[in-house]
Amino acid sequence: MSIHRQVIIHESKDALVSAVASRFIRTVARIQAEKPLVNVVLTGGTVGIGILAGVNASPDRDSIDWERIALWWGDERWVPRGHADRNEQQALDALLSHVAIPEQNIHTMPSSDEGIELDAAAAQYAATLRENAEAGAELPHFDVTFLGMGPDGHIASLFPHRGELAEASSPVIAIRDSPKPPPERISLALDTINSSERVWLALAGTDKASPLGLALAGVSPNLVPAAGVEGRRRTVFFVDDDASADVPRDLIAAEY
């Protein structure tokens, strides 16, 4: 079994959400014992936001020093600030408004009501990444990146059969004509996602079984974008039993 890519199966979506929330708390607390600031990339979606709510509900929530965590987003819908469709707003409601994270450590993506165009917004977020990187680097040192996966295998706002998957000129991409509404979005590029030490993909449901199986079998990321995800240290797919039908048995791990 690869030490870099693993699948951990949970009996239900609720069990998955609870387990990943607990694992996140333990992981961040452990990293904070080793370095002053932990960089985490958040995702949206039912499971991703459910994990954040699980962190908030955990009795161990405050074993994390929330003043020493910096938050980023893997993608965002190009809608006004405060809109219910924004991943940022969902994260605020689920967790961020309940913990004492310094405002300057919450690095939200620009919104459509800020008076800038989509391309400029993507460039602005790329500049923010660079400003928070170590000297000579383009990106912060991401410790954990959360991702979901759509039934078509998309991750962040990187969809199948689209040129954005191969985009390497910028760490942040403006997305137009998204096959999933809203049509305009901002997304981290695949190389940016893969710069993270750990990438955790959390997904549930029978409609994820086929794309997950294809991703793990090594199909082209152009067909299933999740196939192109590879964290620097480890890539873990946390899935429920419904999503696990096509998972290669040699990738299943009892623990991580």
UniProtKB/TrEMBL annotation:
Catalysed reaction, written as an equation: 6-phospho-D-glucono-1,5-lactone + H2O = 6-phospho-D-gluconate + H(+)
Gene3D superfamilies: 3.40.50.1360
Molecular function via GO: 6-phosphogluconolactonase activity
Biological processes per GO annotation: carbohydrate metabolic process; pentose-phosphate shunt
EC numbers: 3.1.1.31
One Pfam family from the record: Glucosamine_iso
UniProt domain Glucosamine/galactosamine-6-phosphate isomerase: residue ranges: 12-235
Organism: Homoserinimonas aerilata
Pathway the protein acts in: Carbohydrate degradation; pentose phosphate pathway; D-ribulose 5-phosphate from D-glucose 6-phosphate (oxidative stage): step 2/3
Alphabetical UniProt keywords: Hydrolase
Function, as annotated: Hydrolysis of 6-phosphogluconolactone to 6-phosphogluconate.
Protein name, UniProt field: 6-phosphogluconolactonase
Family the entry assigns: Belongs to the glucosamine/galactosamine-6-phosphate isomerase family. 6-phosphogluconolactonase subfamily.
NCBIfam families according to UniProt: pgl (TIGR01198)
PANTHER family: 6-PHOSPHOGLUCONOLACTONASE
